[in-house]
TrEMBL record:
Record InterPro entries: ClpP/crotonase-like_dom_sf, Pept_S49_pIV, Pept_S49_SppA, Peptidase_S49, S49_SppA_67K_type_N, S49_SppA_C
Catalytic residues in the record: 191, 383
Species this protein is from: Chryseobacterium potabilaquae
GO biological process: signal peptide processing
Membrane-traversing stretches: 12-35
Lineage start: Bacteria, Pseudomonadati, Bacteroidota, Flavobacteriia, Flavobacteriales
Identification of the protein by name: Protease 4
Enzyme Commission (EC) number: 3.4.21.-
Length: 584
């Protein structure tokens, strides 16, 4: 008995200690949160707007996350729309004398870099300077930085300018070797998401699609870099093919950089440009702080709402990614909000669940009956991401948006052979002919395959039906450019899958025009979560473990792992793009 009470007392003490530690943990996090907040930022005279490594350009508020495992992080998340507005505002701000780009790596998507480049190009029309400094510069960072009037490189630095390539990993032999069966059902010869399970090499159709896509995007990016640096296109190709950017002297010789100097010399150069005295301080202000300097301005009156949809599409009700129940609530809220006169639906998604995509599309169709609905595409608007755009009055795409992928597939794994080899077998008792049409050991029955195939075909026809309605083309026309094929935004405009090539800002201006608004404010949905709300959200055991794994192996690797471990990604018909594309 004495031992029993001793154990009970020990458990009570342990629980009390945990509660105290949790309390102090939250106090510390909240203190850090308040310390990191921007306090009444004042823009000083002779300031330089700085885009640096501490700036993460994100497409949606749902991508913003307070990481309780990394509370010392100095990075500031900035929405692309806010970043573009800031650069536009700085153009006419007498206190901002120029822009300094100081980013070796760049946390931004390809279309976001395009938009930033366009905004900085427009900023240069004011006569203010734009300079860039780099050490070991990624290709994405150079794509942005090359827009500058002058590009300065560290004498021991490098520019990783190499072009674009894709490497596809195949699992067919692996599955065969270990006795893993994979039943694949798809519509569309270009629906290459399932190829790694069917082949050991890239199919001719997929090779054609990848070649066209990569060349479209690289042609756009390389021509802009060559033009900004005043390099002949033939010579620029030679520079890229030869990796000359990896050698500082060759970067200078072939005009990738204007001068090799140290960072301190670069800062002194800017001070000289501003006519500052030797002891005067150089005032640099980040995008995040500059936005904070005016973000508290009055925003009452008529509104154009931007509803951001970023990530994969799922059924359910969670904050991150695109969960159908959550987005139905957002859409209904916008539909009933009389102050919101028009909605811009910003899509940055490779797709996901066909069912969830259909639910979201239906609610957007109801919204469209009440107020203008304009769609803007980010890096991805493919498969389910394209499907949910089909309620739009008008669709804006970026030139490099991965667009289309009008196709449907299902992948069903089973483990009969490997189980049998290891002495595992099963037997079935059922009430009906197809009660067990699928099992993880025996796979899918022939009749089950037949019915799932009909489901995939029916979903594809429904997909194409909505596209024909929105794009004013016949089934045959859409089917001809569909089949799961992914197009660049430029080609999507040529074949009629989008209406205009333009930015999120262009879509917002058009939405306001369509709603008849002369003055308006822009409001973002979903609302940003406070750090406190995000901390509580992360108390879910699965979320905590996921964050720890993601921090350890990196976001890209975690997304691959999730394909095999997340139940939401399995056992259903999908509208999903086969790959992601980045300029690294």
């Amino acid at each position: 008995m004495k031992s029993f009470f001793k154990n009970v007392l020990a458990n009570i003490v342990a629980i009390a200690i945990i509660c105290v530690l949790f309390f102090f943990f939250f106090v510390i996090v909240l203190i850090f949160g308040s310390m990191s907040g921007d306090k009444s930022v004042v823009v000083k005279k002779n300031s330089v707007l700085t885009i640096n490594l501490k700036t993460n350009i994100i497409d949606s508020p749902t991508e913003e996350h307070t990481d309780v495992f990394n509370i010392n992080s100095q990075n500031k998340n900035v929405l692309i729309y806010e970043a573009l507005e800031a650069i536009n505002k700085a153009k006419n701000d007498d206190n901002i004398k120029g822009i300094s780009i100081e980013a070796d790596e760049l946390n931004a998507g390809l279309t976001q870099i395009d938009d930033l480049r366009n905004a900085i190009d427009d900023f240069k029309k004011s006569g203010k300077f734009v300079y860039t400094y780099g050490n070991n510069v990624s290709q994405a960072a150079y794509y942005l930085g090359s827009v500058a009037d002058k590009y300065y490189l560290n004498p021991a630095g490098m520019i990783e300018l190499k072009g674009m390539a894709t490497e596809v990993t195949f699992f067919k032999d692996f599955a065969d070797k270990f006795g893993i069966g994979i039943e694949v059902i798809r519509h569309g010869k270009f629906k290459s998401a399932v190829e790694p399970f069917l082949r050991n090499d890239i199919s001719p159709e997929n090779k054609e699609q990848l070649g066209t896509l990569l060349n479209d995007i690289w042609k756009n990016a390389s021509s802009r870099m060559a033009s900004s640096r005043k390099i002949d296109s033939t010579q620029f190709k030679t520079v890229v093919d030869s990796l000359y950017g990896m050698i500082p002297d060759l970067s200078l010789q072939y005009k990738l950089a204007d001068k090799l100097i140290q960072k301190t010399e670069y800062d002194e150069l800017i001070k000289s440009k501003l006519n500052l005295k030797e002891k005067e301080k150089l005032n640099k202000i980040s995008l995040g702080k500059y936005i904070a300097s005016y973000s508290s301005e009055d925003k009452s009156g008529d509104k154009v709402a931007i509803l951001y949809a970023s990530g994969a599409i799922y059924n359910g009700d969670q904050y991150n990614d695109i969960f159908s129940e959550k987005y139905i609530k957002y859409i209904k809220e916008l539909q009933e909000n009389d102050k919101v006169k028009a909605v811009v639906f910003r899509i940055n998604s490779p797709g996901g669940s066909a069912n969830a995509s259909d639910e979201i599309l239906f609610e957007l169709q109801q919204l469209k009956k009440k107020k203008p609905l304009i769609v803007s595409f980010g890096d991805y608007a493919a498969s389910g991401g394209y499907y949910i755009a089909m309620a739009a009055d008008k669709i804006y795409s970026e030139p490099n948006t991965l667009t289309g992928s009008i196709g449907v597939f299902g992948v069903i794994p089973y483990f009969k052979e490997i189980a049998n080899k290891n002495g595992i077998r099963s037997d079935i008792v059922a009430t009906n002919a197809n009660s067990q049409y699928y099992s993880s050991l025996n796979g899918v029955s022939p009749y089950g395959v037949n019915m799932i195939t009909k489901g995939v075909e029916g979903t594809y026809k429904r997909f194409v039906h909505f596209v024909t309605q929105n794009r004013k083309q016949s089934f045959e026309q859409i089917d001809n450019i569909g089949g799961g094929r992914v197009w660049s935004g430029t080609r999507a405009k040529q074949i009629g899958l989008v209406d205009e090539l333009g930015t999120l800002n262009d879509a917002v201006k058009y939405a306001a025009q369509k709603a008849g608004l002369k003055s308006y404010n822009v409001e973002s949905y979903p609302k940003k979560m406070s750090p406190f709300e995000q901390i509580f959200k992360d108390l879910n055991e699965d979320d905590i473990s996921a964050r720890m794994i993601k921090n350890k192996i990196g976001k890209s690797n975690y997304e691959i792992l999730e394909k095999f471990t997340n139940e939401k990604l399995q056992s259903e018909i999908k509208m999903e793009m086969p790959y992601q594309l980045k300029i690294n």
